[in-house]
Specification:
Domain tRNA nuclease CdiA C-terminal: 40-120
Shape: globular
Number of helices: 4
Structural class: alpha/beta
Number of domains: 1
Strand order of the largest sheet: 1-2-3-4-5-6
Radius of gyration: 15 Å
Number of strands: 6
GO molecular function, one term: tRNA-specific ribonuclease activity
CATH topology: Trna Endonuclease, Chain: A, domain 1
Protein name: tRNA nuclease CdiA C-terminal domain-containing protein
Pfam families: CdiA_C (PF18451)
Region (Disordered): 12-41
């Protein structure tokens, strides 16, 4: 699903770099003001911003379950921007949008969705709030 999501983005005119190097990820984060765990390997650079992809394997996955997977990506420092590939999902996109609107995820800056029809939709998020604690940035050595 990661490959097909990259193909959909590219076909719609987005600049996509799949499996960017750690140096490319670090450069992008510096240039955009994003943060993240340097030990993680996000899936893409989309328009020079770091994104990771989440594709539910269960076509009936609950909205809250998708939201939780995105939340985990932000919490562990994988990325602050997520592409959710819903090509095989049968759920309600408006309910998913409502979940993100009603339950802000600290540290999350952007969510894009690929619908089952191949449309790319930007999910409106509440105003950005940084994480209070970034465990992957703390130095406990």
């Amino acid at each position: 699903m990661e490959n097909s999501a990259a193909d959909v983005l590219a076909a719609q005119g987005y600049r996509v770099r799949q499996n960017p190097s750690k140096a490319e990820v670090a450069r992008s984060r510096r240039e955009t003001g994003d943060v993240g765990d340097p030990g993680k390997a996000p899936d893409y650079l989309v328009e020079d911003r770091v994104f990771d992809c989440y594709s539910p394997v269960n076509p009936d996955k609950a909205v809250r379950g998708i939201w939780t997977e995105v939340k985990i990506k932000a919490e562990v420092g994988q990325t602050q921007r997520v592409l959710v590939n819903l090509e095989d999902w049968r759920g309600d996109l408006s309910a998913l949008r409502g979940q993100f609107a009603d339950w802000p995820i600290p540290g999350l800056k952007e969510v894009k969705v690929i619908t089952s029809g191949g449309e790319i939709v930007q999910v409106d998020l509440p105003p950005y709030r940084p994480m209070e604690v970034l465990p992957w940035l703390s130095n406990t050595d």
